[in-house]
Amino acid sequence: MFRSFFPAPKLFFGSAAVWAALCFLIWFTIGPALQSVISLDPILTPNQGDDPTPFLTNQKVWLYQYVIMGTYLFCVPWYFIDRHRYYWWSVLGSATIVLMLFANVQVQAWLNDWYGDFFNLLQTALTNPGSIAPEDYWGNLIFVAYVAAPNVLLIVSINFFTSHYVFRWRTAMNFYYMSFWPHLRHVEGASQRIQEDAMRFADGVESLGVNFVYALMTLAVFLPILWGLSEQITALPLVGEIPGSLVWVALLSASFGTVVLAAVGIKLPGLEFNNQKVEAAYRKELVYAEDHEDRAQPQTVKELYLDVQKNYFRLFFHYLYFNLVRSTYNQASNFITLIALGPSILAGAITLGIYQQVANAFGRVESSLQYLVDSWPAIIKLMSVYKRLRKFEAEIPKGSPLPESPV
């Protein structure tokens, strides 16, 4: 699954985690010293006034440079370590997706600041009619359009690039398995494993991986924002004043939902796996019947279909209470911000702009912390696919060399 596309998968992903941690450590320790030596901000932003261009402050330029350097420097050793034909997609392509996600998170952080200023302007306009000039109102909307329009192109580009990325991964898996076809052809549903499960696995891992990286980046950017906004909150209901109160509320809410849903949905991966087994047995009998008249006799078809029905009914039952708990939690989480801000709102301690900033930042932090909650159905299906492919790959002789892909 991974070996066909990534170089030395265990080493690759392990070193990626270590490299990311090292980059964070360097940024918060000797980052300022490095900035004074290698940063391009004196060249790109030589004369900043009191109102610098958004996204191009000295510190922002250095941040962009550092992230780009750190991301692509990680790719260099892998050009020489266990490199194969998919290096440009598996290594460099992964790095490019990370940078595109980083750019999108930066736009979202800027929009959060814009929300604060704009909704304060709205509050002033609504409470004091005629106090806001038309050019200020329309100017703000036009200005945000200049930022939002390129971001739309960025999102479209991410989707386009990741679609090609997934197909390359599927291609690598396809020809990896086909090179061992004599060892695999006798496995139940072998054709489905190669044609369908390879596609599902690549698509599922890419989707979950992109969302996971995006969640981590969102947390890295919005946690400090939410912590700072928490200083504007007078107190939480029942517990009173707590430093970084909104961060703790988001963390507790997401942790509670993750633990509860993991417990409630513990049986679903096994049921999904069994579902594919009974479907494969039924499908195989029908395929044989296309060429052999003695196959797919009524009694055999009835027994096989009853197995399918039994497993589906069990799935429906377990998804019933899983979806009930998940929907209840998601509905309740929509009101957590209003509950947490209740004392501050009633005391008139925050403006509409601050409320909007808090709601947006809290929503992004909580959503990122709820990664497992939101992704749980997809994780269940991916675990089922993974189980099938692991069983499938067990038939490949250990230590077999990586074959060359013909395309």
From TrEMBL:
Signal peptide (from-to): none
Membrane topology qualifier: Multi-pass membrane protein
Alphabetical keyword list: Membrane, Transmembrane, Transmembrane helix, Transport
Transmembrane parts of this sequence: 63-81, 88-111, 137-161, 208-227, 247-266, 335-355
Compartments where found: Cell membrane
Domain of life: Bacteria
Single GO BP term: peptide transport
GO terms under cellular component: plasma membrane
Major subcellular site: membrane
Classification via SUPFAM superfamilies: ABC transporter transmembrane region
GO molecular function: ATP binding; peptide transmembrane transporter activity
InterPro entries: ABC1_TM_sf (IPR036640), ABC_transporter_sub-D (IPR050835), SbmA_BacA (IPR009248)
The name this protein goes by in its record: Peptide/bleomycin uptake transporter
Biological source species: Maritalea mobilis
